[in-house]
Structure formats: C-alpha cells, structure tokens
Amino acid sequence: MKKIIAGLLLVAMPALGQEYSPALNTAGADNLYWGDLHVHSNYSPDAFAFGNSKLSPDAALRFARGDQVTANNGMPVQLRRPLDFLLVADHAEFIGVFPKLVDNDPDLLATELGAEWRSLFDKTGNIGAVIGEWLKRIQDPNYEQELSEDYRSQIWQEVAAAAERNNQPGVFTAFVGYEWTAMVAGNNLHRVVVYRDDAATATRKLPFSALDSQNPEDLWAALAHYEELTQGRVMAIPHNGNVSNGLMFAEETLAGKPFDRDYATTRARFEPLYEVTQVKGDSETHPFLSPDDEFADFETWDDDNIGRTVAKQNSMLPHEYARSALKLGLEMHSKLGVNPYQFGLIGSTDAHTSLATADDNNFWGKFLDSEPGPERAHNKMGGSLWFNWKLAASGYVGVWAQENTRAALFDALERKEVYATTGPRIALRVFGGWDFNEEDIHNADLAQRGYSDGVPMGGELTSAAKGNTPGFLIQALKDPDGANLDRVQVVKGWLDKRGKTLEKVYDVALSDGRKQNRRTGKAPPVENTITAAGNSYTNASGAVSLASFWQDPEFDPDQRAFYYVRVIEIPTPRWTAYDASYFGQPDNEEIPMQTQERVYSSPIWYNP
C-alpha cells in the first residue's frame, strides 16, 4: 500500500519477520528426498554366508551415492539415479564377525566363540555351516553373549565410522544404525534401528541385539536409555509383519498381557513408522482382509513364518498387514486413549547384497543366488526358503524435508511426512484440512496452502466443527524416468458406533477420462501397453500427473478414522520379464511377468 505525505512516497512494509524472498518465509518441507533405510552388507552374517563376501558397508554407501561397484556375481552394477540417503542396517547379532572370521582376525580367534566357529569353518570348508550356529543362537531366548563388550564395541565403531566417512550434509546422508533381529519361534519381529546422531554419539552405547532380548519392550527400554545417556534421538522401524504369523501387530504383549496405556505410549513413541513394502513381499493389505479391493493382491507372500515352523492361518492375517493394523489402532485408541499403531509408511529393500536396487529393470535381488543370472528366478532364496521369483523389486522411501541432513530427514521420518514406494519415484503431496476447496487443487502454491491451513501426510485432524467435513488436497506426478499413472485412490478406515472397524477404497482421480461404473463402483482397467515381447511398454495410456480435491462423503464427526493415499501406475514389465528377455528363458505360467507399481502415503488421522 502506498501513501503520499508531505511530498514523500511511503511504502507499507511487510509484517515483522517477513522477507522478500518467499523461500525464507516457508514453514513447510519443500524438498523431496529418496532413500533406503534397510540394506545389509557383508557385515551381516546371513548376507556373508549366502555369498556377499566382498561388499562392505563402505561399498554399500558408495553404491547408493552413485558409484559403480562389482557385484558378488562379478557383474558391474550402478544406479541410474543415485539415492539421497542410506542406512546400512546390518544385523546386530554378531555384526561384522563373519568377514573377520574368514580373515583370521586375531582378536576374534582369541575368543571362545571365534575359535569354535573357525574350527567349524576349517572342518567343513564352508562358511555356510557357521550360519546354522548363528541361527541357533539368535533364536534361543536363553542364549547369552559370547563376545566381550570391548570386541563388539570395536566392530560397532567400524560400522559407525563407515557412515561418518560417507555422510556429506546437503548432498548425501549416511545414517548410523543396525537391525534388531528378534525371531520368536521363527516368527519375524525384526526392527531397523535408526539414529539421528553422529557416530561419536551413537557409539556411546552398543547395539541392542536379539541376544540381549527378543522382546520389543526391552528394545524400547534400551533405546530410551540411549536417549537419556546421550541426549540423542533414535527410533525403531518394524518390517515384514507378513511373515510374523500374527505377532507383529498383536493385541497383547509377548508375555500374553493385554496392552495398557504405557505400552501403547511407548510403542507409538519409538515406532512411528512401518516398512510396508520390500523384497520379501508387500504388507499393505491382503485379499482375504480386503476382498473388495481389486488391487489388494500385490506381491503377496502367503506362506508362513521365516522359520517355516507353522503354516499360515487366516486368523493371523489381521495382525500382519498395515491396513488392518491401522484399523486395530483405532480400536485401541478408544480403549486406551493412545493409538500404538498410529504409524507412517515407508518402503526399503532389505537387500543383503549391499546393493539398494528397487527398479524392475535393474534389480539385484536379496542374496547372491538372486543376483542376475539365467537360473535366479528358479533358485530358492538362501538355498532353502522361497523361490526367488517371489521376490519383489521393492522399495524406497520418499521424505519431504527442508534439507538433506541427518537431523532434517530424521525429523521428517519422526513426524511421518514420508511415504512408501515399491520402486518408482512418484512425487506425492497429501494435505488434509477443514477449509480446503476445489479451487485449491489448482493453486500454483498448493503446498504452502496445505501447510498454512491443514496438515501434511502423517498429521492429525481433530474437533470437527458441526457440519464440517475434512477435505484432502492430493497431487501426484509420475516418475520422470518411469511409467504414467493409472489412478489415485484414498483408503479410509474407521471405527463405527458399534466399535467395529471398516474400510473403503475410493478412486479419486482416474487417467484417460475413465469413469466409475455406477452399479459396481469400479473403474475400467487402464489400457495395458506392454509390448508383445513382454520386456517394454509405452506411456500411450495413463497420465503424467493426477490431482484431486476430495471430501469424505460418509464422514461422521463422532467416529475415529484414518485416510491414506495409494497411487498406482499403468502395467509395466516385472523384473522376471526383463530376466526372461535378457537370458532367453522360456515362459513359465507360474511366474508373474507384469506388475502395477505404486506408492502409499503415510495416513492422516481424524480423532474426535
């Protein structure tokens, strides 16, 4: 506003604290970063025993930064697009011991365990023989540590130092962390532990391993002690509930006691995220749990637990998958006043090759036997478990943060402003609020509007005014190096007046002008452009971007609910199709050759 007073031109100045440069006034997270929080190097005993004898934590980090490395099968490999961050999450149980055993490390051989394992290795000539002893120990709840704290500290210092060497704030973030590998009677309870802190801080306390305890409550207590000791920050991220045989999202503790408020509070505090997709299958939902969801059966591992000790039963499934766990969380919130399952969603690879690859046309598997080769699809993972063709080329995590540093990325992870991808780097924005409208989706500054008048993915809406309905601003942009988009969906779960949890999937944006069938509520499938050869496709169908303003047509202000967004690509060749073409393999009807990649946003919750 301008005024002329006594011949002088006066210009009204902006409010105190405002700057001319809009970037200085931005309150939200403007930058999207891609990474993997779950890669194993040769410092993981199982990775080493199953063939990853060469690629160290340093090699894993260099590869993620974009360097070319030589895989264990002798092939050169490189990411077309480097990642922005990585966590080498080697198993805490005997971390780094196997390569040192083969190298005759004198400090290791001076221990009783080192001497015993080296003797077994010399006798059999096969490091794989030692893996049986490793598995026996990590599954025995009464097993005690056999390595001194000094020796374990020495290795932990090496692991953290590798992250420190490769960490370059603003360019590439190397997190310090490990995996806690609890496996109760073969049931997967694994957690990846991620530190916000530098190596000097993180190494003030040894990793908490399954040899210390297989109870998640003891892990959380150890993480709380670490934070009290160092004033640092740390979190745990569960993965593969789909092979936990119903334990991952149970309704009682391992001791068989119902959850109480303290348990729910502690779990929500230390486990704000869940790894919903990775090589050992997709854990969003299951066709048994979501029979009306036509996209529910995606990379489903429907076998049993990791130990193959108990066959899968349908009664286990509600406690294994993210969507059903989110629904259970609504029930528990009503009972306890706290939601233990109010988690965001991420993807990561769980690759044991040191190679964080999640693209179908550049997929390097889980172990050496699932690195590219003519027989890899037909080999069994690790030599004895599942056929490798079941492996999914998945996944990564997208993080909205202000900068590429440990602190900024960790804070974004903690507030759940993150989302899971099965591979493609689709840019996704989701905001929920009470005052959005249809015009906002066309706003050139959608994110600023979203932050100023709503909450981003991972946020919470409360206290609906009478007659008000939450609105969601959703914007999805295809991977610039990938496939077009088929559709955008909102997945809603809610707790009705009878205390029953329900779910519904809404198509909120469809490509190619398609409409839902009024009778069935389903949209026709997008055109499949995969070529006759099966190893390529065109972007002749689908959309480059899809956006939507959506309001819940069945909103009840008295009912708890969550909403997350699922974006699905057009059909593309699966990694098995690229293999069949490259290695000249015959068709096999048992092996899927097509996929529809996707991303899952972290939810936004409504709590009355």
From TrEMBL:
Listed A to Z, the keywords are: Signal
The answer, when asked if Signal is one of the entry's keywords, is yes
What InterPro entries does UniProt report for this protein, alphabetically?
Answer: DUF3604
Q: Where is the signal peptide?
A: 1-17
**Cross-referenced Pfam families, in alphabetical order?**
DUF3604
Q: Which protein is depicted? A: DUF3604 domain-containing protein
| Species | Candidatus Litorirhabdus singularis
